[in-house]
């Protein structure tokens, strides 16, 4: 049998179908093969070696680990339901064996000598036992099904929380890393859903094993030779299932990049915020053609998979048929040679059929458990990787100690309000970038100051502000709040002392109030007076006028996708974003292009407010509107990631460098 399987496997290997199939044109209407080496090669080859190992032996070796993971997960989700599921399934299996053995009693009575009514009467007690065990088994199985169904949503909740807890705490650089994003997509779309499946299939493995053990035990009692014959029929089906699962998993891995591109394109074609641009730039044909290009590639790969899986299944079925026939021939021979009496042979047929059903279920469950275990393994690997990217200092002490990487000193305390912030010789390169975005930047801010960063596009202003806000860690150099380096304190301590009015901010699909408070502040109840903090922030930012025009004021939902939702203009959204920054009332306010969408009056008002806001706090202002940075206490001019000029407006104008050039250029546009 092993040789036959190896032969079939060789045919598959020779056909060269273990690798991503060269995309064949199965339909003349298909677009030409796009090739797409950028989407298949790296992901595929990264797992090639690992997949080549996967055979029945590997499945057998790895299955206990998968089952242990499933058991651990189920245990954490609900101990009571886990114990009940296992206990009820084992009890149901015991009644299966009991029923089979009682059947021997029925058949022995029926096949004995004597008049038929007497034989039937003799069979009645055993028959009653058979009926009772069938009824009990069914009841136990139904109860087991119920506890198993209860486990599923509890497991799902556990795995979802773990993933989102990790993704929201992982370092921001992780989300700039395309490999991390690919792994995230795979874990979120497939791996996370695999978790309850793994648990379910692990229970099915248990159920199948118990059923198998019941049938095998019965056969062993009847005649020891029958047992290996039964097991023989399982090998071809097991081989076909494992082979098929492996192909499916490999295909999924190979298509992960394609799936992500398709997902991004589908968002571009369906989301409201892109709809106007898609039309105005007549992008429809381009987007549809791009989508179809990826969809056609995916279809070709999946059709090829279906073809290869069909071949494997047919091979497995044929071999299983041969093995089953062999079992019955062997049983016939044993009967003919008088090794087993007729009643025992009859029970053996029933036990073989019951065993085959359990075996088929077991093989299916093992295969499914293994296959889902592969996806679940992706999920676990992703969560581990994401958790490893949570900065040490962000973890509670217990979790930090449990991490295998070196443990730094315990996190330091950040001063509640600082006297000065120093940036010392900071360098930074984004992950995957060749060129550094910051090259040895130093600057200083004191409490109560407004400090401005100016420079041409891509000079590093936003990057520097993110490092100062503790969102990125510098590769070299340090940022000190008084004498405490930011890399030594818990990130949320920094974030809670910084308010950022970002260049790219989110249009939160929430009420106007929630857009300002972002879940902070007192909970507002209908009819209660508005939180004074919200009113002050809205007044300072000009959001007050925006809210006054909304049908339900601060309670208006700002998302047109929901009934009664309102939409705001770009400038109106920006006023809310500014209100959010003011509401936080943090010692450091970072304003990155806060006026890009504002009208002239709102812009003027905002710069006045920012100046007022700086009293007792500190403001880092990034803007291309140089007229507005005149009032800054100090201005740093960046070029290609370096500070090339610094000083106040008058000093920089006197210097006659880049700042003076840019300022003169802008002011000339307003001069007659
Ligand atoms: N997430 C990122 N991943 C890789 N590179 C990035 C990323 N963000 C910015 N960069 C690169 O870092 C450099 C500095 O970008 P940054 O956004 O800091 O410039 P900026 O001065 O704020 O520009 P602008 O005036 O256009 O807002 C640029 O070359 C940019 O391409």
TrEMBL record:
Listed transmembrane segments: 86-111, 318-339
PROSITE patterns referenced in this protein's UniProt entry, alphabetically: ABC_TM1F, ABC_TRANSPORTER_1, ABC_TRANSPORTER_2
Pfam families: ABC_tran
Annotated membrane topology: Multi-pass membrane protein
Keyword ATP-binding: yes
Compartment(s): Cell membrane
Keyword list, A-Z: ATP-binding, Membrane, Nucleotide-binding, Transmembrane, Transmembrane helix
UniProt protein name: ABC transporter ATP-binding protein
């Amino acid at each position: 049998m092993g040789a036959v399987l190896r032969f079939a496997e060789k045919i598959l290997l020779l056909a060269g179908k273990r690798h991503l199939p060269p995309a064949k044109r199965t339909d003349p209407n298909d677009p030409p093969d796009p090739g797409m080496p950028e989407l298949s090669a790296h992901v595929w080859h990264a797992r090639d070696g690992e997949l080549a190992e996967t055979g029945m032996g590997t499945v057998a070796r790895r299955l206990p680990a998968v089952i242990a993971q499933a058991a651990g997960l189920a245990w954490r989700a609900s101990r009571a339901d886990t114990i009940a599921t296992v206990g009820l399934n084992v009890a149901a299996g015991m009644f299966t064996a009991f029923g089979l053995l009682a059947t021997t009693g029925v058949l022995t009575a029926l096949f004995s000598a004597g008049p038929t009514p007497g034989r039937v009467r003799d069979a009645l007690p055993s028959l009653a036992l058979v009926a009772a065990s069938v009824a009990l088994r069914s009841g136990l199985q139904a109860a087991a099904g119920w506890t198993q169904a209860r486990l599923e949503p509890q497991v799902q909740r556990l795995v979802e929380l773990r993933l989102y807890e990790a993704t929201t705490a992982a370092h921001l650089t992780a989300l700039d890393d395309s490999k991390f994003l690919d792994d995230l997509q795979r874990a979120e779309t497939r791996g996370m859903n695999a978790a309850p499946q793994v648990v379910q299939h692990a229970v099915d493995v248990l159920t199948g094993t118990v059923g198998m053990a019941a049938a095998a035990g019965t056969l062993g009692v009847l005649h020891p030779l029958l047992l290996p014959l039964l097991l023989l029929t399982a090998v071809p089906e097991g081989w076909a299932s494992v082979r098929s699962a492996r192909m499916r998993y490999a295909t999924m891995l190979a298509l992960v990049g394609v799936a992500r591109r398709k997902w991004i394109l589908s968002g571009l074609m369906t989301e409201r915020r892109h709809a106007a641009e898609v039309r105005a730039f007549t992008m429809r044909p381009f987007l549809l053609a791009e989508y179809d290009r990826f969809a056609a590639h995916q279809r070709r790969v999946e059709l090829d998979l279906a073809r290869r899986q069909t071949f494997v299944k047919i091979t497995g079925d044929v071999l299983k048929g041969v093995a089953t026939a062999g079992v019955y021939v062997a049983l016939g021979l044993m009967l003919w040679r008088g090794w087993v009496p007729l009643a025992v042979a009859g029970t053996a047929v029933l036990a073989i059929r019951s065993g085959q059903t359990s075996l088929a279920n077991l093989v299916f469950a093992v295969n499914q458990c293994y296959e889902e275990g592969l996806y679940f393994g992706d999920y676990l690997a992703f969560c581990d990787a994401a958790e490893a990217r949570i900065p040490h200092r962000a973890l509670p002490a217990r979790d930090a100690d449990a991490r295998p990487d070196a443990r730094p000193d315990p996190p330091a305390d950040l001063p509640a309000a600082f006297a000065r912030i120093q940036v010392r010789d900071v360098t930074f390169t984004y992950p995957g970038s060749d060129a550094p975005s910051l090259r040895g930047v130093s600057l200083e801010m004191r409490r109560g100051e407004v400090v401005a960063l100016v420079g041409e596009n891509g000079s590093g202003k936003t990057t520097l502000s993110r490092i100062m806000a503790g969102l990125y860690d510098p590769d070299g150099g340090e940022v000190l709040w008084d004498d405490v380096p930011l890399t030594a304190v818990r990130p949320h301590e920094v974030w809670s002392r910084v308010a950022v009015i970002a260049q790219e901010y989110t249009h939160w699909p929430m009420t106007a109030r929630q857009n300002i408070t972002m879940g902070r502040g007192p909970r507002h109840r209908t009819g209660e007076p508005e939180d004074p903090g919200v009113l002050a922030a809205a007044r300072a930012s000009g959001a007050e006028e925006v809210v006054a025009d909304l049908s339900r004021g601060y309670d208006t939902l700002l998302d047109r996708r929901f009934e009664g939702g309102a939409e705001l203009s770009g400038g109106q959204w920006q006023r809310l974003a500014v209100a959010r920054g003011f509401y936080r009332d943090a010692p450091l306010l970072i304003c990155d292009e806060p006026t890009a969408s504002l009208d002239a009056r709102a812009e003027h008002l905002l710069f006045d407010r920012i100046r007022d806001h700086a009293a007792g706090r500190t403001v880092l202002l990034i803007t291309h509107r140089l007229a507005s940075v005149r009032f800054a206490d100090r201005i740093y001019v960046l070029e290609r990631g370096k500070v090339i000029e610094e000083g106040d407006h008058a000093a920089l104008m006197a210097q006659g460098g880049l700042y003076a050039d840019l300022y003169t250029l802008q002011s000339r546009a307003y001069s007659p």
